[in-house]
Design brief:
Layout lengths: L1 H17 L7 E4 L5 E6 L5 E8 L13 H8 L12 H7 L3 E6 L4 E8 L3 H13 L5 H20 L6 H9 L13 H6 L2 H11 L5 E7 L3 H12 L22 E7 L6 E8 L5 H14 L5 H9 L3 E10 L4 E9 L5 H17 L4 H18 L3 H15 L4 H11 L2 H11 L5 E8 L7
Parallel strand pairs: 2-6, 7-11
Antiparallel strand pairs: 1-2, 3-5, 3-6, 4-5, 8-10, 8-11, 9-10
């Protein structure tokens, strides 16, 4: 029964994705450099207003890390026309919701409103860009908020320092080496003038993209955008530094002790190309083969069959300048960490030396078709994708065309990219182990 059911599932998935509608959009620039993207979808009376700024943790002074994430919080404090503490109340009172997030490469703010409140969303984001109130009261308040977030999500969370330990050891020169949340002592030492200067440099129209997606009338929306964002002065052009890492030529070993865990973990990480490179797409497919679902190679072998791991995963963490290909495992029972590494290397070696079967290739293509449809299944998701493809890839059309890149990647390319990047002499080997006597220092 199972053997006949699986092809039917794959066929239905293929038929579903083949008829997925393309995302229609229009994009243009205001005179001040703000890039605008509009997507009209009148199927539901909702609209998303979103602004992505091209600033992340990589843009920070090494002695003032955490600024980009700090501003994710700080720019909700209030504006000249929105009183302190009123931002979220205004959104909620008008039937909306909002959020923001920061990565190494960008910061993203968005609101979702009933479409009759589109103008409110545009006004609020223009206020954030033009009239933010940055004062010592707000800085002190958000300093405590960020410290509590760090305590909750990292310091007191099992495996909460995983990413910090990884990137600190995988990168030596690039700003990716420090955590997005930054160092609390850097935020404590920063002056109000330093925060004001950071805002003036990065949170300007020529360093941002505005996306309006949903139930809109295009001409009216353009008029409102011009009214609210057009008068905002252009900022100074931003000159970004580039950082080149020396290739890893031998296994780099590191160890991190976490007082919040009882079960150790082993992690292997490899430096990989920018998200914009074709090889990054092939590495995404390698991840699916190794650990996407219970039938994936690593899960089936180490969790299901040999019962050596209680959890295992592989993923390509793509960023604008570099990527990190990460494989991690938590041992089951007394399985030595070295044993897990040997088993992982064996499966990676298979990928490096053998083509995946035609059947596995077809299944892989269907997985990525399904992911493509899901990513564009909501107005909120479409807005995020439009902003990201423009800002980080320099090609908004990828919202419709990226799936064609995955479709075009061959079995030979999957083998070759694994052979090129996933070798023991090119990796970090991190032992993430319990600590019994207090905090890491």
């Amino acid at each position: 029964m199972k053997k006949r059911f699986l092809p039917i599932v794959l066929l239905l998935t293929s038929l579903f994705t083949a008829t997925a509608q393309q995302v229609a959009f229009e994009e243009y620039d205001l005179d001040n450099g703000l890039h605008v993207i509009l997507h009209r979808d009148n199927t539901a009376p909702l609209v998303t207003t979103a602004v992505m700024y091209h600033v992340g943790s990589k843009d920070e002074n090494p002695e003032r890390t955490g600024f980009a994430h700090f501003f994710e919080h700080l720019l909700f404090e209030g504006t000249e026309n929105i009183d302190r503490g009123q931002w979220f109340k205004i959104v909620t009172a008008n039937g909306g919701r909002n959020n923001a997030n920061t990565t190494q490469d960008r910061t993203y703010y968005y609101e979702v409103f009933p479409s009759n409140n589109l103008e409110l969303g545009l006004w609020m984001e223009s206020e954030r860009m033009l009239h933010p109130v940055i004062n010592q009261i707000g800085v002190d308040t958000q300093n405590e908020v960020v410290k509590e977030e760090k305590r909750m999500r990292m310091d007191n969370q099992p495996y909460g320092q995983f990413a910090t330990a990884l990137f600190a050891n995988l990168f030596e020169k690039h700003p990716y080496r420090w955590p997005i949340i930054g160092a609390m002592e850097h935020l404590d030492a920063a002056t109000l003038d330093e925060f004001l200067a950071f805002n003036e440099k990065f949170y300007v129209p020529n360093n941002a993209v505005l996306v309006v997606a949903g139930d809109i009338e295009t001409d009216k929306t353009k008029k409102m955008i011009e009214d609210y964002f057009g008068p905002i002065p252009r900022g100074k052009d931003i000159t970004r530094k580039s950082f080149m890492e020396s290739p890893l030529t031998e296994t780099k070993k590191a160890r991190f002790e976490d007082p919040n865990i009882q079960i150790p973990a082993i992690l292997t990480a490899y430096r990989t190309p920018s998200m914009k490179e074709r090889e990054a797409y092939a590495l995404d497919m390698v991840s699916s083969i190794l650990s996407d679902g219970k039938s994936s190679r690593l899960y089936k072998k180490l969790v299901d069959e040999k019962k050596k791991a209680m959890e295992i995963g592989a993923f390509n963490y793509s960023l604008e300048d570099y990527g990190a290909y990460i494989i991690y495992a938590l041992p089951l029972g007394g399985t030595p960490l070295d044993d897990l590494v040997a088993e992982i290397d064996e499966e990676v070696g298979r990928l490096q030396n053998e083509l995946i079967s035609e059947r596995d290739y077809e299944k892989l293509q269907n997985q990525f078709e399904n992911k493509f449809v899901n990513a564009n299944s909501s107005i909120e998701g479409i807005a995020n994708s439009l902003a990201r493809y423009y800002m980080l890839y320099g090609n908004t059309r990828l919202i419709n065309e990226e799936i064609d890149i995955y479709r075009s990647i061959t079995r030979e390319e999957i083998r070759d990219v694994a052979k090129k990047y996933l070798n023991p002499n090119q990796r970090l080997l991190l032992e993430y182990v319990p600590r019994e006597d207090g905090d890491n220092r």
